[in-house]
Amino acid sequence: MTYAFIQARCGSMRLPNKVLLPICGKPVLQHIAERVRYCKTIDKIIVLTSINAENDAIENLCNQIDIPCFRGSEDDVLDRFKNAIREFNIQDNDTIIRITGDCPLCSPDIIDVIAYVHHDNDLTTNCIQRTFPDGLDVECFKASMLFSPVFYKVNPFELEYDIKNFDGTGFRVTNIIQEKNFSELRWTLDTQEDYEFISKIYEALYKPGQIFMMEDILKWLAKQN
After folding, report:
1. Could you tell me the pTM of the whole model?
2. What is the total count of domains within the chain?
3. In CATH, what number is assigned to the domain containing residue 136?
4. Which burial class, exposed, middle or buried, applies to 206 when counting CB atoms under 10 A from its CB (0-12, 13-18, 19+)?
5. DSSP assignment string, the chain
6. In this structure, is the dihedral angle defined by the CA atoms of residues 168, 143, 126 and 115, taken in order, positive or negative?
7. How far apart (Å, rounded) are the C-alpha atoms in residues 127 and 157?
8. Which residues, other chains included, contact 52 with Cβ-Cβ below 8 Å and sequence gap of 6+?
9. What CA–CA distances, in Å, run from 94 to 55, 74, 142, 211?
10. What's residue 191's pLDDT?
11. Largest CA distance in the chain
12. Which positions ≥6 away from 171 have C-beta within 8 Å?
C-alpha cells in the first residue's frame, strides 16, 4: 500500500492559516488534496495536523472533503508521523509519500515518477540534490524507516524540514533529478507574495476537474516574460 501524508498546520508565523487561504474558491489544502488524488500510485491520503485548537478548521475541512485527518504532537513531527502509522495500521514495508501544506502546486506526474522509482529503496526524493522548483518537493519512504534509531539520529529536525544527510547510514537512498535545473524557481507558499504569485497561476491554469502540471506552469511563465 502507498499512503500520502499531507503535513499541514495553521500556525505558520509568516503566513498564518496559509493552508486554508482561498484560491479559485477553494482552500489551499483542498487543492493539494485534489492534486494528490490525481496520482496513479497512491492508495490512501491522510492529512496530518496537530492537536492545537487552531487546527480544528483543518479537521473540519478534511471531514467536508472526505479525507482522514490524524492529529498528533504540535512540536514533534516525527512522533506525529509514527502515531499516524500506528493509528492506520500501516505496515513496515508500506510506502509513505510526504507532501507538505506549503506545496499547492505539487505535480502528480512528479509524485508518480518518484513512487515508481522507489521500489526497494528506503527513501526516494527530489530534495537532496535539487533540480525541481521549490514547492514540488516529494519524499517517498518505507514506513519502517521512521522507527529506526539511525533515522532519528540523522534527522534532528524530526521531519520539520527535508529528509537528508543519509551518507554512511546504510539506508538505500535515491535522489531524482531532471536534465534542466529549475531549482531557482520559488513555487512554495510561505509569504503573502508567494500567495499572490500562486493565486495568479491558479487563475490562469485551473479548471475544475482538471490538473495542470509543472510543464503547464513553465509554459505559462514563459509567456509572461
Report:
1. 0.93
2. 1
3. 3.90.550.10
4. middle
5. -EEEEEE--S--SSSTTGGG-EETTEEHHHHHHHHHHT-SS-SEEEEEEESSGGGHHHHHHHHHHT--EEEE-SS-HHHHHHHHHHHTT--TT-EEEEEETT-TT--HHHHHHHHHHHTT-SEEESSSS--SPBT---EEEEGGGGG-HHHHHH-TTTTSS-----TTS---EEE---SS--TT-B----SHHHHHHHHHHHHHH--TT----HHHHHHHHHHH-
6. positive
7. 15
8. 9, 10, 11, 74
9. 27, 25, 6, 27
10. 96
11. 49
12. 122, 123, 145, 148, 150, 151
In angstroms, the Cα distances linking 218 to 90, 127, 223 are 37, 20, 9
**pLDDT given at position 120:** 82
d(CA 39, CA 165): 28
Host domain of residue 158? 2-224
Contacts of residue 136, Cβ cutoff 8 Å, sequence gap at least 6: 103, 105, 106, 107, 110, 126, 187, 214
- Specify the length of the chain in residues: 225
For residues 204-225, give the mean pLDDT: 95
Choose among 6, 5, 4, 7: nearest CA to 39: 4
The CA-atom distances, in angstroms, between 47 and each of 4, 15, 105, 162 are: 8, 20, 17, 18
Q: Is residue 158 pLDDT above 50, yes or no?
A: no
Q: What angle do CA 213, 139, 30 make, to 5 degrees?
A: 50
pLDDT mean across residues, the chain: 91
Q: Residue 91 has which C-alpha cell?
A: 505496515
Predicted confidence (pLDDT) at residue 187 exceeds the cutoff of 90: yes
Of 29, 30, 35, 87, which is closest to residue 205 (Cα–Cα)?
35
